[in-house]
């Protein structure tokens, strides 16, 4: 088996007396969507923040392609190919869909600081951005102001911006949140195809999306991973049913 792309190795984090992550070990392998599920307050966000670099673990390490990135901040991790998506506030609402995407592409492919006009005239960046927009079904919206997009289309745009970074791994925090049935279906289809480009660590409460997308699922309860397995293994796992899924499985 190939080496994991992204690893959390023995991650622990406490807030006072509360152990939000207890020696969590998790692997994201090439080509997979690995869902992280668990009840409210289980520690999913805390773990994702440590993986993305917003929070420093008390103990343990984060590796990206075998390299220790534990001490790097979010920007340095992003430059190394860790794409954290679904922070909608990162989009400039007054700019066009294409401008948002090209500025994302500039972060990864532009070597020097450039003023905005030359950036927008850069054919190479434009081609990278248009390819990313096409990939998520937004090419025909390139000239629209981002503020005009629906909630679901903004999610698609976030994916396009992340794609311009040529990511090695995606970390996605509740991408389906706030989307209606058709938005979820559209985004599920997009994520389904993305795993071939880079594996996805997916935190998601929408179990239909999780069961439709995940190659493997890890279940976090009280800061600990109680099971990792395929959808079928997790659905059948008696500990998971007792702690989390109940009759919903
Ligand atoms: N900065 C913080 N200071 C103190 N306690 C925190 C902090 N961040 C999280 N916690 C606590 O750590 C525990 C895990 O929270 P976390 O948000 O990681 O869970 P979660 O699984 O993401 O929950 P949800 O599904 O509701 O988003 C909770 O008890 C939470 O109250």
What does this structure look like?
This protein has 249 residues and is of the alpha/beta class. It folds into 2 domains: 1-81 and 167-249, Rossmann fold, CATH 3.40.50; 89-166, no CATH class. The protein has 10 helices and 10 strands. It has a 6-stranded mixed beta sheet, sandwiched between helices. The protein has a 4-stranded antiparallel beta sheet with strand order 2-1-4-5, covered by helices on one side. Strand 1 and strand 2 (18-28) form a beta hairpin. Helix 3 (97-109) packs parallel to helix 6. The chain is globular. Bound molecules: adenosine-5'-triphosphate. Adenosine-5'-triphosphate (ATP) binds next to strand 2 and helix 1.
Strand content: 15-25%
Q: Can you give the helix content as a percent range?
A: 25-40%
- Assign the CATH architecture of the largest domain: 3-Layer(aba) Sandwich
What's the CATH C level of the largest domain?
A: Alpha Beta
Morphology: globular
Ligands bound, unique: adenosine-5'-triphosphate
CATH topology of the largest domain: the name is Rossmann fold
Number of helices: 10
């Amino acid at each position: 088996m190939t080496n994991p792309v992204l690893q959390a190795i023995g991650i622990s984090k406490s807030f006072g007396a509360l152990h939000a992550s207890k020696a969590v070990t998790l692997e994201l392998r090439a080509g997979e969507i690995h869902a992280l599920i668990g009840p409210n307050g289980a520690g999913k966000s805390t773990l994702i923040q440590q993986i993305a670099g917003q929070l420093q673990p008390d103990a343990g390490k984060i590796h990206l392609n075998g390299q220790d990135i534990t001490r790097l901040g979010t920007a340095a991790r992003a430059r190394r190919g860790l794409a954290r998506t679904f922070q909608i506030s990162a989009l400039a609402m007054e700019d066009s869909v294409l401008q948002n995407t090209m500025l994302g592409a500039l972060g990864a492919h532009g070597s020097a600081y450039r003023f905005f006009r030359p950036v927008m005239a850069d054919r190479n960046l434009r081609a990278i951005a248009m390819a990313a927009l096409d990939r998520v079904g937004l090419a025909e919206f390139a000239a629209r102001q981002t503020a005009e997009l629906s909630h679901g289309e903004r999610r698609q745009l976030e994916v396009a911006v992340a794609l311009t970074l040529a990511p090695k791994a995606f970390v996605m925090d509740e991408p389906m949140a706030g989307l209606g049935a058709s938005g979820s279906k559209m985004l599920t289809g997009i994520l389904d195809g993305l795993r071939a480009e880079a594996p996805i660590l997916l935190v998601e409460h929408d179990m239909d999306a999780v069961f439709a997308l995940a190659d493997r699922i890890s279940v976090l309860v009280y800061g600990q991973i109680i099971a990792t397995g395929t959808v079928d293994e997790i659905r059948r796992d008696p500990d998971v049913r007792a702690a989390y899924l109940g009759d919903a499985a």
